[in-house]
Amino acid sequence: MLYFAYGSNLHHFQMKRRCKDSMFLKKINLKDFKLTFRSKYRAADIEHKKNSIVPGALFEISKSDEKKLDVYEDFPILYKKYYFYYYGKKVMTYTMVNKTSFRYPTERYLNIVKRGYKDCKLDKNFLLKALQH
């Protein structure tokens, strides 16, 4: 199945460790969404925003990878699944259940996301903009 990562799962080494079957396919943009950080974990989340984009990575994952991600993302308590179509193919990602207010991420978490942006060759300006809130 196809999975869209936009936070710490962009980090290739971490993603491989978490989901052994995962394969990075390419970078893509999710339209009409924006990146933010929230919850007591200060983790990445996406929310609807017209004419905005969230850069991220498209991964091919197995059923067992999905189960591991569900545990890591605390599905369905913290995150729920959100599906969209990319060139006719169904893609799964996660979005937070409770849209709490913005919380600046921890340095450790932010460094993992930054490393992921580098791994996937994403435009860091989108990340910097999300952090300015």
Question: Could you walk me through the main structural features you see in this protein, from its secondary elements to its overall organization?
Answer:
There is one protein chain. The longest helix has 13 residues. The chain has a single domain, classed as Roll (Hypothetical upf0131 protein ytfp). The mean pLDDT is 97. A five-stranded mixed β-sheet has the order 2-3-1-5-4. The chain is globular. The protein is of the alpha+beta class and 133 residues long. Helices cover 29% and strands 41% of the residues. The termini are far apart.
Structural features:
133 residues; Hypothetical upf0131 protein ytfp; 29% helix; globular
Query: Roughly how many Å is the radius of gyration?
Result: 13 Å
Q: What name goes with the CATH superfamily? A: Gamma-glutamyl cyclotransferase-like
N- to C-terminal separation? 33 Å
Q: Would you report the number of β strands?
A: 5
What's the structural domain tally? 1
Figure out the total of helices.
4
Which regions have little confidence, pLDDT < 50, spanning 5+ residues?
none
| Oligomer kind | single chain
CATH topology value: Hypothetical upf0131 protein ytfp
- The main sheet orders its strands as 2-3-1-5-4
